[in-house]
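Sample entry (323 residues):
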Amino acid sequence: MDSQVKTESVADEDQAASWGEAISRTLVPVEVVPLTGQPFDGSLVSRRLGYVRISTLEADAARVSRTAALIAQAPHAEPQVGVGVQASGRAVLEQDGRRAEVPPGGLALYDATRPYSVDYPERFRTHLFHLPLRLSGVPERDLRHAAGTAVGPMDGCGAVLSSFLGTLAASAHSLPAAVGDRLAGSVADLVSALVAQLAVGRAADGPAGPNEHLVRRVRQYIDHHLDDPKLTPERIAGAHQISVRYLHRLFEGEDVTVCRLIRQRRLEACARELGRGGRTAPTVSAVAQRWGFADPAHFSRTFRAAYGVPPHEWRARRSDDPR
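Predicted structure, serialized as tokens:
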């Protein structure tokens, strides 16, 4: 469902609140505080591209905040990853104690499940991309390392992502649904690459434990071999010339075991692909087999345990989701 809101038809004293309510309905609940004493002018154009929500905000100087109180009001809301592409004006993002300045042409990454704020000190235009964390392919641990970070227009994969997302925001309204479904997957892949780059950079800035680099290599190996049904701790250990016992010890300080990580990443890949929909989408069984689940019945049980619904219902809900 597309939406468009302008504050020009609202009384001066209600314009900022009206604009904030529009953002809250469309994306996630936020508070808006104008940074000038003048009547506030703002607009919001939002549309859905597959499972990605693209919103273009243009407004006068303001502070947009997602507070802990607002998050607590919807404890069961689906976790979202947010990327902001600054088309004009500057932005200052604060999250998890980090402060990132975003120049025109730059982009910022944030986690919509945790408090954050963005100051726009002058009139601005920004494109916001929100996608479900479960369909992004982004490990929650990496997102915590990377959130609250800005990338300049010429830095790393930020240059590619900023250009692609800016063009996509401008043309999303004219794209057929089938094309939009495929492009949503491209957005997820690029965001995942961005998070990986930023998470590695953050880890490099801080004190690394003696096994942190090896754990990261193991995680990358798992991601690169998810489609192999023979991906096992034994194979992973052999590829890294360590014992299986030592491999399990490496993950004792992590938030997940090796076997659970393999299953979790495979399920995320399946959920992401099933969520893309489209007329030419592969069957549930084909998706399961592609990502290493040889037994369709086992896959269906495992998927339902993780996501609360069977795979075919997940696909139907994502296809019908108006947001």
